[in-house]
Amino acid sequence: xxxxxxxxxxxxxxxxxxxxxxxxxxxxxxxxxxxxxxxxxxxxxxxxxxxxxxxxxxxxxxxxxxxxxxxxxxxxxxxxxxxxxxxxxxxxxxxxxxxxxxxxxxxxxxxxxxxxxxxxxxxxxxxxxxxxxxxxxxxxxxxxxxxxxxxxxxxxxxxxxxxxxxxxxxxxxxxxxxxxxxxxxxxxxxxxxxxxxxxxxxxxxxxxxxxxxxxxxxxxxxxxxxxxxxxxxxxxxxxxxxxxxxxxxxxxxxxxxxxxxxxxxxxxxxxxxxxxxxxxxxxxxxxxxxxxxxxxxxxxxxxxxxxxxxxxxxxxxxxxxxxxxxxxxxxxxxxxxxxxxxxxxxxxxxxxxxxxxxxxxxxxxxxxxxxxxxxxxxxxxxxxxxxxxxxxxxxxxxxxxxxxxxxxxxxxxxxxxxxxxxxxxxxxxxxxxxxxxxxxxxxxxxxxxxxxxxxxxxxxxxxxxxxxxxxxxxxxxxxxxxxxxxxxxxxxxxxxxxxxxxxxxxxxxxxxxxxxxxxxxxxxxxxxxxxxxxxxxxxxxxxxxxxxxxxxxxxxxxxxxxxxxxxxxxxxxxxxxxxxxxxxxxxxxxxxxxxxxxxxxxxxxxxxxxxxxxxxxxxxxxxxxxxxxxxxxxxxxxxxxxxxxxxxxxxxxxxxxxxxxxxxxxxxxxxxxxxxxxxxxxxx
Length: 684
Prior knowledge:
This protein has helices spanning 3-9, 39-45, 48-74, 82-149, 162-168, 171-174, 176-179, 183-239, 241-247, 251-261, 266-281, 294-301, 306-326, 330-341, 418-425, 435-438, 443-448, 465-497, 527-531, 537-541, 596-606, 609-612, 621-645; strands at 12-15, 21-24, 286-292, 347-354, 360-368, 373-381, 451-453, 460-462, 518-525, 550-558, 561-569, 579-585, 589-591, 673-675, 680-682.
C-alpha cells in the first residue's frame, strides 16, 4: 500500500477542550466540509489559569506513566509488551499537549508584549502632547513677562519738571485744563514740549556748526600763513649763526637745550642750571651739553594712562609666561634685578673745562634712578701726545684722575646709606665693582646736583640750587687745578725719566749755581713694592700713605755715594706735599732712623713747602724738592769728609759749597739751608 493511501486512511487528531486528542475518521474524498484549526482563535477563548491547571495535570500524568513504565521494566516486562507500548502512546499524547501549551504561552506572551508596546506608544504620544502644551505655556509666560517689564523710551528721557513745563510751555501744548487731571495727557504734552525744544536746539547746533566751520577756515588760513613763514625764519636763523658765534650768543643751541632740559631728572637739571650760570658769569671756557636719548626720556616722564596700564599689564603677563617657558634660573633673575637697580637715566650732562694750553677735561654726569645718586666719568683731551713717559701712565687715568678732589673722597662707594639695603636684596657686595661702567659717585658730584644724604637716617634731601651754588665755584677751580697739575706733573715725570730735573727760571734762585749730585734713575713702583722697603716703615706706621697714592723711586748719585729716595705722591698734589723717605748707600747703609743728618735732609725736603713751591699754584714743587735733595746730598758729602778727616776733604768730594759752620750741636747737624742771594749754607 502506498504512503498516500496510508495518510488518507489515518485518522485526524483534534484536541478537545480537555486537552485529550479525539480520533475521528475522515470523510470521503469527495467530502469538502473540513474545518480549519486555528490556535489564535482558540487562544482568545482559553483562560491562562485553565492552561496552567492543564499543564500541572499533564505533568503529573506524565510522571505517573513514567513511573509505571519503570515498574513494568523492573517487573521483568519487555520493551515491546502491550502495557509498556500503551503507556508510551499515552506519554506521547501528553508531550503533544505540553508542546501545545508552550505554543499557546508564547503566543499569549507575544500578544501581551504587543499590547504593552501599543500602550507605550499611546503614552509617548500623550507625553509629547503634554510637552507641547507645557512649552506653549512657558512661551506665553515669557511673553506675559516681557509685556509686564516693557519700558517705553520716554522713561529714559530726562524731561523738565512739571512746574517748569507749565511755566515755559505755551498754552496750546501744556493745555492745563486737560493735563492737570489726566496723567497720560500730561506725559504726552511734556513729550511734545521736549520735541519742540530739541528741534530748536538742533537749529542752534546747525548754526553753531556753520560758524565753527567759518572759524576753522580762518584758523587754517592763518596756520598756512605761519607755516609759510617758518622756512623763512629758519633761513634767517641759519644765516645768523656766524653772528651768534661771533657774539657768543648761541640762541638756537640754547633753545634746543632748554627744550631737552625739561626731561632731565631734578639733580641733573640743578647741575645744568648752576654749571651754565657759573660758565656765563665766571668761566667762558666752560660749556654744558645734554646728551642721550630724548625719546626714551620723554617716555619716562610721560604719565601713564589707564590704557597704557592695561597694555603694560598684558605685556607683563606675556613676559611672565615667556619667563615661565624659559624657566629662568635664580642667577638670571638676580642679573635682571641688578640691571634694573643700576639703571641710568637716558639723558646725561657733558661738562667741558677748557684750559689755556688747549687741553679739555670732559665730565660726563649720569643719574642712577633707582639708587638716587649721581656719577661722573672723565675723559682728557690734550693737543699733544702724552704717551711717552712710563711713570706718568696713571696720572691721566680716567679711573683715578678725580680721586681725592676733596680729602678722603675716593668715589668707590655710594654715599647714599639706603643703597646698602638695596644691594643686599640683589646680592651686590660692593659698588666698586660697577664703578668702571657707571662712573664714580663722588660726594662733590652729589652736592653739585643738589643732593645731600643724611648719615643717620639714610634719607636724601634735594636741597637744589643753594647747595649746588655753594660748591660750584670751588669744585670747578679744583677740577681745573687738578687737570693743570696732572699735565704739568706729566711733563716733569717725562724729564725725570730722562734724568733731567726741570727747574724753571722763577725757581733758579732757590738753589746754588752749581749742583754736582744728579738724578740717575726715576721709576714708578706699586704699593706692595713700597711697603717692602725697610727705610719707609716709619712712614707706614704713621699712616701717611694710602693705596691710592702714586709711588716712585728716585736714585741720586755722586761719586760712590748713592741716595735712594722713595717718593709718595698724593692725588691732591700740589695741595699736599710729596713725601720723601731716604736711604744712603755710602760707607754702609744709612737711613733717617740711624742718621740724624738724613732725617734733617728729609725735613728740609718735606717740611719747607713755602720755600720750594715757587710761584702759585706750586706746580714745580716736586722737581724743586728733587733739586733740593741733590743740593743737600752735596752738602752732606762735602761736609761729611771734613768732619771725618779734619782736612779739606778727599778729592772725591771737594768742598764747593760755602758753609758758615760745617756742624752744630751734639748731633753734629750739617747746614742744609741755602741763603739767597748771599749764596752760603747755614743751619736752621
